[in-house]
UniProtKB/TrEMBL annotation:
This is DUF2848 domain-containing protein. InterPro entries: DUF2848, Fumarylacetoacetase_C_sf. It comes from Saccharopolyspora griseoalba. It comes from the Bacteria.
Amino acid sequence: MFPLRFDVGGEVVEVSVSALLNGGYAGRSQQDVAAHVAELAELGVPAPSRTPCLYPVAPYLAMQTREVPVQHARTSGEAEWALVVAGPDERDVLLTVACDHTDRDLEVHGVAWSKQAGPDVLGDAAWRLVDVADRVDELTLTAWAGGERIQRGTLAELLPPQHWLDELRERDLLRPGAVLLSGTIPMAPEVDQFADSWRVELGDPTSGEVLSCDYRVARMLDPVA
């Protein structure tokens, strides 16, 4: 596995991923989450036994890439933020932008399986969480699928980073090399999520800074079998 490298205010921070986790059904309003679970159940997506969820994913799926190979046309990204534990101290916890690329056909058979079928794409730059912690709810998440805006919201819509730090600590996972993705915000239903490219931005309205990740989706050859 290649280490991830982040530009943190001009400093290059390198992280070898030892644990990768995806949050799911992670809206701040769990009442809204319950309604969403019911909607997905009607589409055939199995309901979780509890919310929010936490899905372990193979560490090698944490990538900084410009291309995501896929096996079919029904895969798509999700706008998310990610926590990256880069060292032993509080100041070593980084916040970056991420896109969880998910196999939607597999999702109806098991959400955990669908998470394992695609990478978690992370941005090349990050902020130290302590530097933005006082305004984290003001940070914005925006995503474009094939050039059309499909997601737009703030981190106030999702469970806060501290929730997940506490969860990692409780599970003895809050150690260098841990990466956790936040779960996502609603998608605009009129935009086709099965696009040939995805771009996600994490913005700080106070500083004007924007972290981004973007990639194209490349269909692989059909199996020879």
